[in-house]
Design brief:
2 domains, Alpha-Beta Plaits, six-stranded antiparallel beta sheet, 9 strands, 239 residues
Length: 239
Amino acid sequence: MKKTVYIRFTIILLIVGFMIAIQYNTVKQPETRDTRDVWEIRQELATETQLHSELLSEVRLLEETVGKYDNMVNESPEIALNETVKQLKQDIGIADFKGPGLTITIEPSLESMMVGEQIEEISPDLLIRLINEINRFKAEAVEVDGKRIVYSSAIRDVNGRTTVNNLTIKKAPFTIKIGTLILEDAKKMYNQLQASPIGDNFYIDNLRLTIGEPEDEVTIQAFDQSVNMEFLQEVPGGE
């Protein structure tokens, strides 16, 4: 009889201990504490708020585009199709861009020229970093030394020479043209690039980054090579 009582008592203790362990794991403090101060949290909140606002603006723009497309389809399907093809060519980069934007000039730094240092080509890593910085600020079209950047563009080091779309980038000076959707975006990009530390990275490589004033019209050539369609498949009619 006593043995049965002990067994039951042991089982009850095991159940209670298991429940306490679960409760402890549920309410225990996280291993890493958030050590950010109020200003850091407010800055992060402001960044997220700005991102949310930009996303809402893009959604509104897409809704307007869909509305215009529906109206064109009802009025003239042929015009709607042509406008869609034209817009897709613009988005892909196989059509010329003409609109607001700005021009960046990359040239040797004054100090390097004064001391007679040899000017090296811009490195692929530095150029990629600059392109990523530009795309972060809503660039509609980008042209590096006359070479259009598209979704399939590759920036590589080929035999010690920096190439874009398998074409060699000449030594500084050369220009980078940037097109934006509206002039206001070009002004914002100008201010953001001016405040960005990307220019310091160029200075380390004896190069100077000069950001031109926003312009009402910048002309950027279309991508003049064949577009890679390796992963594209034709959708059968009616689907």
